[in-house]
Amino acid sequence: MDLHEITARIEKLSTQYAEVHGVDRSAEWALLKLTEEVGELAQAHLDASGQSRERGLDDAAKQQALRDEVGDVLGMCLVYAVQRGIDPVEAVTGKWFRYEKAADGAAAGV
What we know:
This protein is mainly alpha-helical. 68% of the residues lie in helices and 0% in strands.
């Protein structure tokens, strides 16, 4: 599955979520949700790395929560990109891959 297909599927799910919960899916909403998810990722990281109060989760549950939050951050970033008319593949390749050096594979300026 490529990133465009993933984006389309997430966009469909996000639209369904908004319809069920009466949410106005503006770009501002998407950015705020992305920010919320980054906070939840930070909490999951603190839990998984032992830098938070004990929440009664075993290591497997902590790792699952961390994976879930990474998924939420990536998903909401894709929703935000759609809201702003940004092709996520072009955004990533245009930003990251311009630093590749064909000769030695070294990257600079990221």
